Amino acid sequence: MLWRQWSPTWPFGEDTYARTAASFDNPDFVDVVVHSYRHAFGLADGDPAHADLERRLAERPRITVPAVTLDGVHDPLRPDGTADQAGMFAARHEHRVVDAGHNLPQEAPAAFADAVLTVRSWTGPVRR
Known about the structure:
This is Alpha/beta hydrolase family protein. By secondary structure, the protein is mostly helical. 41% of the residues lie in helices and 9% in strands.
């Protein structure tokens, strides 16, 4: 139901759903998902081990690494998109709008991969 609502133009099939459904077969699945949403909406505490990081993120520091941000034009969770967030980026940043809903990696894999490869081209080879 959520896939259809959040990605209304994505014609996923039963095989895609079946591959994903395996992750639901976990005794902690519901608790983890519910806690994740409660935490995101400020209704539950996070892990105390990450309290300092949470505090720092709450200050909304500027993002200091290169980034490409993507908005799905059919994403009902962000109907106005995120282009207004450009001021959050201190390093090189590019914003793109993609013909997809909320699940960009599966709905628009080429556009998603291109965004990753674009950032990679900006940053040079991976150092090991």
